[in-house]
Amino acid sequence: MGTPLRSVLTALGVIIGVAAVVALTAIGQGSTAGVTKNLESLGTNLLTVQSARGGGGGSLVRSGPRQTITVEDAEALATAFPDRVGAWPPP
Fold it and tell me: Distance (Å, rounded) from C-alpha 27 to C-alpha 33?
């Protein structure tokens, strides 16, 4: 009596495990597609500049020494692209 029940429970456990893996994989792929779609909707004309102040460190990916933008840099961008430069959140 014990062996058939053990076999059924083992099969049920395998079925539930496989279904869970398939479901989590589908959720992960859906999330990736959503994030990719959002990033693509931003286009290639978006430049994001963040303040280097603050002790957080923030980024896990570094591509060299930390560079900062100066007020003069911001003014030069505003002069070069008067209808394209903005800040968020607004000052």
Answer: 10
pLDDT of amino acid 27: 94
| Owner of token pair 């076999």 | 7
Contact 77, 85 (CB under 8 A): yes
Q: What are phi and psi of 2, to 5 degrees?
A: -70, -40
pTM, entire model: 0.43
CA distance 39 to 59: 18
Measured distance between the N- and C-terminal CA atoms of the chain, rounded to whole angstroms: 75
Residues 6+ positions from 69 with CB-CB distance below 8 Å: 49
Instruction: Reduce the DSSP state of residue 77 to 3 states and report it.
Output: helix
